[in-house]
Give the backbone structure.
Amino acid sequence: MTMNNRVKAVHESKAESSELIMPNDTNPLGNLMGGNLMRFMDVIGGICAARHCESHVVTASVDHVTFGAPIHLGDVITLKACVTHAFNTSVEVYVEVTASKMGSQEPKKTNHAYLTFVAIDKNTMRPKLIPKVKPETKEEKLRYESAPRRREIRLILAGRIEAKDAVLVKEYFGNL
Ligand SMILES: CC(C)(COP(=O)(O)OP(=O)(O)OC[C@H]1O[C@@H](n2cnc3c(N)ncnc32)[C@H](O)[C@@H]1OP(=O)(O)O)[C@@H](O)C(=O)NCCC(=O)NCCS
């Protein structure tokens, strides 16, 4: 793989979208179905990752999503996505969801998740190297610094590394 020496700021790839929750998006109780919310999160996360990588991307993993408060038919949800850290061929994206009544200016946070996308070379269909991330704000720096630890945890859960080899997790939590 050819080196990618580029470094991009977080704001260069931020993505945002809003959705009006329609009958087709809801369950029989009139709340947004969890799977539909995850689809919206995957799409906005993918747009953000593709902007950072300047490439096609695929979703490699979605960290846990909790559904803390129901989102109702007729609510407007806003999804905001930003990159937190880029590794070799994969980038971690933070997606936050807020919901408000139609016309209201008081959005409430309902969900968030970290998603990992892998950049794909469209000729070889194999992962390709991506630009690094330069965090600038305090929040961006905090997410950037904690990202390698989250990566280790998700690679353990995916069975790609063994817990005994997880150096960062061990430093933080002790032995699992
Ligand atoms: C993701 C995918 C491209 C990885 O392919 P691979 O042959 O395992 O490639 P590699 O071993 O080189 O890993 C590539 C990167 O993916 C990351 N990765 C692989 N599985 C992962 C997982 N479960 N969670 C997070 N990252 C993962 C690796 O850590 C690596 O990142 P790095 O280069 O930044 O260190 C491949 O598994 C795939 O195509 N999956 C299906 C993707 C898809 O269809 N998504 C939509 C689902 S509906």
Notes: The pocket of coenzyme A is lined by residues 58-61, 87-90, 116, 118, 127, 154-155, 158, 160 (CB under 6 Å). The two ends are 34 Å apart (CA to CA). The first strand starts at residue 7 and ends at 9. The mean pLDDT is 94.
